[in-house]
Design a protein that fits this description.
The chain has 331 residues and is mainly beta. It has one domain. The protein contains 2 helices and 20 strands. Strands 4, 6, 7, 8, 9, 10, 11, 12, 14, 15, 16, 17, 18 and 20 form a 14-stranded mixed beta sheet that branches. A two-stranded antiparallel sheet has the order 1-2. Strands 3-13 form a two-stranded antiparallel ribbon. The longest helix has 4 residues. It is globular, with a radius of gyration of 19 Å.
Length: 331
């Protein structure tokens, strides 16, 4: 299948850390963020950095500062680079383009195979092309940070996007040629009595360019601010991220070369009473394809022991679905 089939509709999640909310059962999120109730901060699961791909993107849409003189070089390669890598130009950012994925909403965990197969000598192959009846469409969109009430507090922000599974929460990101940083989380509504604004110090490095098999990095960050009008929210987060494999991912819409990004997140929230703190552990995998971004996203149960776990409460994958204004597509 040609990669250009998805080039005009793909705005795919680069999930690289755990601070957003996972999709809620029986929920569909339409453009503009019509979802079910948000979850409290202690239940927050992975935030996501949206990479919206359009191979005809021009310089005014792509914030990457490096210029290219050759027209052929201006169109990024949709194959993995030398040593199984993806650079920043292979994941350009396009704003204000709502797009869709499908999300598992079954009452039982979905069965998956994270180990993949290596038969045939063509490298590792992961299959996520199974037919699933209990899926819904979820919509996400990267927006300019400057138009939001919290913009002055994050002068380095490049874009914001609604956090998956919430109606009003936005992740605030800075993107450069070197990395994508999660600066904070905030509610779309700036009403002082109900708003949320949580800042990460230091910012969480959710993506480090180039993505290269064998690379690992860890960020330890303090999250502090206001949650739903209540001040003094505080937590300690540790994000350990590794690019641990390369291969081919098979989805319902095609096969794509991809890198597997493995993330472990430990969240600790102090309490004023026994047991004096709450600590949670999550694992997640994102399969990142050049020119498409994240084509498959899997999150573990809290406290999952197995590295390559075989059942998951969250599975999202690339979809050929056209967003509709004011609602979601039926699956």
């Amino acid at each position: 299948m040609k990669f250009t089939v998805l080039s005009t509709i793909a705005a795919l999640l680069l999930a690289a850390s755990f601070t957003g909310c996972a999709p809620l059962p029986n929920e569909a999120c339409a453009p503009g963020g019509q979802c079910e109730d948000d979850q409290p901060p202690e239940e927050l699961a992975p935030p996501v950095a949206i990479i919206t791909i359009d191979t005809s993107v021009t310089a005014e849409h792509d914030p990457l500062p490096e210029e290219v003189d050759d027209e052929e070089e201006a169109t990024p390669s949709c194959e993995l680079g030398d040593g199984s890598s993806i650079d920043a130009h292979q994941l350009p950012l396009v704003l204000d383009t709502p797009v869709a994925r499908t999300s598992w909403v079954g009452t039982e965990p979905v069965q998956i195979d994270l180990s993949g197969s290596t038969s045939g000598g063509s490298g590792r192959v992961w299959h996520f092309d199974q037919e699933l009846e209990e899926e819904i469409a979820v919509y996400l969109e990267a927006e300019s940070a400057g138009s939001h009430w919290f913009a002055l507090d994050y002068p380095d922000a490049t874009f914001v996007t609604r956090i998956a599974g919430t109606a009003t929460m936005l992740g605030i990101y800075q993107r450069t040629l070197e990395h994508i940083l999660l600066l904070g989380i905030a509610s779309r509504d700036g009403d002082a009595t109900t708003r949320t604004q949580i800042t990460y110090d230091p910012p969480v490095e959710v993506i480090r360019f180039p993505l290269q098999v064998g690379d690992t990095h860890t960020t330890e960050s303090s999250a502090h601010g206001q949650y739903e009008g209540v001040p003094f929210y505080f937590a300690q987060d540790v994000y350990s991220i590794s690019i641990d494999a390369a291969g081919t991912v098979v989805t319902p819409v095609g096969e794509f070369p991809a890198l597997r990004v493995y993330t472990e997140r430990t969240l600790t929230i102090p309490l004023a009473f026994y047991p004096f703190q709450i600590t949670t552990h999550h694992k997640q995998y994102g399969f990142i394809a050049p020119c498409l971004g994240e084509i498959v996203h899997v999150t573990s149960h809290e406290g999952e022991a197995d590295i390559e776990f075989s059942s998951a409460p969250t599975l999202e994958r690339v979809a050929l679905i056209t967003p509709t204004a004011g609602g979601s597509d039926d699956q």
